[in-house]
Amino acid sequence: MFEQVLAEVEGQCRAERVPMLGPDKAKLLASCVEKAKPSLIVECGTAIGYSGLWILRVLKNLGSGRLITVEIEKANAERARANFESAGVADLVDSRIGDAAEVLKTIQEPVDFLFLDNNKDGYYACFRAIESQLTNPATIVADNVGRADQMADYLEHVRTNYDSETHWFESRRRPGRRDGMEVSIYRY
Ligand SMILES: C[S@@+](CC[C@H](N)C(=O)[O-])C[C@H]1O[C@@H](n2cnc3c(N)ncnc32)[C@H](O)[C@@H]1O
Question: In this predicted model, what pLDDT tens digit does every residue of 116-149 receive, in sequence order?
Fold first, then answer.
C-alpha cells in the first residue's frame, strides 16, 4: 500500500505541477536519514507529502523517529495528511500549518534533523528559529541551493561554520539545468 500511495503522490505532483523533490534528490534525503537515525526530523515545506513519505518510509523501517512537517498552504497540508493516512504512516508524523519560521519557534524538544524545502529566502530564518533545539551533531539538508542568490545568508552561514557539502543533480524536466542540495552537519 505504501509504495502505491507514494507512486500516486508522485503522479499527482507531475500532473498538477505541485513542486516535489523528485526521486533522485529524495534518494539522497533518504540516505541522510538512514545514516543519521534521527529521533526527530523537522521538515519545512510539506507540499502534498512526497518528500515526507520518503522520510517516513525510512523511519518506519528503522523502527524509530518522528517527523514534524510544516506547510503554509492549508489545502496542501490537508492533502499531505490524507496521503500519510493512506500510506499507513500517520502515527509517525505531526503535520502543522503555518509559516515555518514562526512554527519552528514553538518546537520545544531536541531536533536532530532539519530539512529545508520552503520559501528559499526563509531558510536562514528557519535555521535561526530552531537553532536552540538542534542537537550536537544535527544533520541539515537544504534543497534548491542552485538558487544561491535567494539564500545567500543561509549558505554563507553553513558553509563557513559547519562541514557542508553540495550535491548537484541534473534536472530531468529541463536538460542542461542543474540544482543542488546542501548537506551540513551542525555542531556547537
Ligand atoms: C518545493 S515545495 C515542497 C516540496 C516537498 N518538500 C516535497 O518534496 O514533496 C515548497 C512548499 O513550501 C511551502 N511554503 C512556502 N513558504 C512557506 C513558509 N513560509 N512556511 C511553510 N511552508 C512554506 C509551499 O506552499 C510549498 O508547498
Answer: 999 999 999 999 999 999 999 999 999 999 999 9
Closest ligand 1 atom to 21 CA: 8
pTM for the model: 0.98
Query: Selecting from 3.20.20.70, 3.40.50.150, 3.40.50.170, 3.40.50.2300, what CATH number does the domain 2-186 have?
Result: 3.40.50.150
- Give the pLDDT confidence of 145-179 residue by residue, as tens digits: 999 999 999 999 999 999 999 999 998 777 888 99
The answer to whether residues 96 and 67 touch, using CB atoms and an 8 Å cutoff, is no
Q: Give residue 71 CA to ligand 1 midpoint distance, Å.
A: 6
Rounded Cα distance between 65 and 101, Å, is 22
Q: Which residue has the cell 521538515?
A: 43
Pocket lined around ligand 1, Cβ cut-off 6 Å: 19-21, 44-45, 47, 50-51, 70-73, 76, 99-100, 117-119, 122
